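Continuing the batch. This is chain 6 of the set; chains 1 through 5 are on the previous pages. Same settings as before, nothing changed between runs. Recording input and output for traceability.
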Amino acid sequence: MSDSKTVQPYEHRVQVRPEDIDPLGHVNNVVYLRWAQDAAVAHWLAEAPPEARQRLVWVVLRHEVDYKHPARLGDQVRVRTWVGAASRFRFERLTEMYRATDGRLLARVRTLWCPLDRATGRVTDVDPEVRARFSTGSGPVPPVRAEL
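Output for chain 6:
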């Protein structure tokens, strides 16, 4: 039986700060990863049931970033994130970042996350309620992209 419920992306905004800028005058690559992680954490805290927040902690297995256009000092950035495919122990989180003023895509991030039991530190399952609340798909997480 399939669930027709559509999981909506979580969105928030960030302001580019002087410390985000690299010697080339645009946002440093690692800042995009920080924004992706901050959005994932904010989404989890905003939407996860209290019991799940107490029981689970998430760790990153992999980040993939496609940089499209630079963000610069003074830009406000819309960060949208959602969970795509979810297998038993791996959740694919997708994040897109847009310049708020013109809607231009700045970067796309694909992150693989793994749930751990907070008490034991061991990999654990996520209950069906949490999976349904976050994931837009189930089954195998798409393979890692081929190396360049």
